[in-house]
Amino acid sequence: MRRLALTLTLLTIPCVLAAQENGIFIYAVSPSGLPTSGAPVTILGENLATTCILPCPTTVTFDGVELEVARSTMNELIFTAPPHAPGNAAFVIRRGDGITRTLTLRYLGTIDEQYEKVLLPIWTEQTPGAFGSQWVNELALHNSGATTVNVGHAICHAVCPPVFPFTTPVSPGETVRNPDIRRNKAGEPPGRLIYFTANGAPAMHASLKLRDHVRDPLFAGTEIPVVREKDFFTTTIHIVDVGIDPRYRQALRVYEVDGAARVEFAVRLYELGGAAPIAETRLVTNGTSVELTESPGYAQILNLSSAFPETRSAGRIRIEIEPREPGTRFWAFLSVTHIETQRVTPILPH
């Protein structure tokens, strides 16, 4: 009996050592939002399970209760989330070797079901820039469907109806340029959240352009993505192949879209072919914690090469952005501005 016990102990040690070297990595979570009635959740990643001599399945717990796991492999985990009130909820993934990872998922309430949340990364008043530039942005919305879509938050200029949010309609076949949505002032974070009524939202098309008003004849402007709810990220993202050149300013912009009071992100910079980061930092966004908020949480690094001089010798880098809590909904991009001409190129995440 003593010999058998010793043999089992020796056989399980490699499993524990492997776990210490290989944490749980989450790359994708579906769906990004849960109904209050609960639903199956699929997680894709690495090291979601481990191999042991004895059975050691991966478990998922919520409020101390172990949930049903329908599938568990190294790269996929499927479990059923229980009913829950609207808001964020924490699920604890535990491998058989004791390694854990907390995943935050959002249960959607009535407001979430009525509106689609949309991020305008830059929506500002005319803003002065370097070399006499004057930055303006223009938004065009087109409704290709058969249902009128209401867009909020609109500005109420006269007698305001007792509704929230106040919206402006876009009729079937109509195109609206620069809807009456409050723009951020100079010095405020640049992003704004708008809302489409869910019934008809899939037929809404949007174009957002940023241009230098002073150089209109020379430059037609830059298309800035209008980020739909399905395009929000919840796990680590990568911005690949960023050139570091003193002629350009590279501004990293991170948006948390649910108005959480405080969210932390890890930012790691790598040489293009490197495995270890050459620089790393953290960014913290601060939101308003208001339902249907107009203002996303926001953080930025205004110039990567100035903030991290070690990137200059790399020439080209890639950027990794990881929310501290998986399940945090966010988006990010890099705006690269040529210092002399003030032309802007957005580099998007993957």
Task: Summarize the structure in words.
By secondary structure, the chain is mostly beta strands. It has 3 domains: 2-108, Immunoglobulin-like; 112-224, no CATH class; 233-347, Hypothetical Protein Tm1070, Chain: A. The protein is built from 3 helices and 26 strands. The protein has helices at residues 2-21, 110-114, 304-307; strands at residues 25-30, 33-34, 39-46, 59-62, 65-66, 69-72, 76-81, 87-94, 100-107, 115-120, 127-128, 134-143, 149-152, 167-170, 175-177, 192-197, 204-212, 222-224, 237-243, 248-256, 263-271, 279-285, 297-301, 316-323, 330-338, 344-347. The strands form 6 sheets. A 5-stranded mixed β-sheet has the order 2-9-8-4-5, with no helix packed on it. Strands 11, 12, 15, 17 and 18 form a 5-stranded antiparallel β-sheet that branches. Strands 1-3-7-6 form a 4-stranded antiparallel β-sheet, with no helix packed on it. A hairpin with a 7-residue loop joins strand 21 (263-271) and strand 22 (279-285). The longest helix has 20 residues, at 2-21. It starts with a helix and ends with a strand. Residues 1-21 have low confidence and may be disordered.
